[in-house]
């Protein structure tokens, strides 16, 4: 084992691998959730013939806050991007 700066490198790599594994699992779990959310938002826009900004402006504060959190949260960003790509591939116009 190499020692560098007071931390054993094996321990450093183990912690990094653990964090990467947790993020991977979170992403896998969140892809279907984000996909359903994107699908529901697109259906809402089409149903009411509104643009995305108009739909968000009419949301109650709590719902708008949750929407912003699910779309911008760095923890969910990979899942959101993958779900968006899957949605666009399945619903080409």
UniProtKB/TrEMBL annotation:
One Pfam family named in its UniProt record? DUF3949
Query: Transmembrane ranges?
Result: 12-31
Q: Which UniProt keywords apply?
A: Membrane, Transmembrane, Transmembrane helix
State whether keyword Membrane applies: yes
Q: Which InterPro entries match?
A: DUF3949
Q: Which domain of life is it from?
A: Bacteria
Q: Mind telling me what this protein is named?
A: DUF3949 domain-containing protein
- Organism of origin: Rossellomorea aquimaris
Q: What does the organism's lineage look like at the top?
A: Bacteria, Bacillati, Bacillota, Bacilli, Bacillales
